[in-house]
Amino acid sequence: MKFRPLHDRVVIRRITPLEKSAGGIIIPDTAKDKPMEGEVIAAGPGARNEQGAIVALEVKAGDRVLFGKWSGTEVKLDGEELLIMKESDLLGVIEGATPVARAA
Asked: Which of 28, 41, 76, 93 could form a disulfide with 11 if both were Cys (CB 3.0 to 4.6 A apart)?
């Protein structure tokens, strides 16, 4: 299924952190917080300003971003859990990040 967000919304795939701590301790699922880092999967065309012109988004598909802990709406598309949120809910883009393998 193809999904295209509207206006200034973006679709985010959470990036799961490593399963071990720096000391080699395995962290159980119950002790983990949900990650606040993700990859932009799709972005809408932008929001309209007071003059009616579309203001393009600053993020694009493939960008790694940080977002608030409780930001966005969780949805399940094609069996994959994703987040949909407004661009204003994003805290920033992680520059120079290496591409991430898809979470299983």
From this structure: 41
Q: Which amino acid is at 26?
A: I
Burial 63-80 (b: 16+ CB within 10 A, else e): bbbebeeebbeeeeeeee
Q: How far apart are the first and last CA of the chain?
A: 18
Tens digits of residue pLDDT in 11-33: 999 887 655 555 666 666 554 55
For the stretch 46-50, contacts whose Cβ atoms lie closer than 8 Å and that sit 24 or more positions apart, written own/partner, are: 46/7, 46/8, 47/7, 47/8, 47/87, 48/7
Query: Considering the entire predicted model, what is its pTM?
Result: 0.72
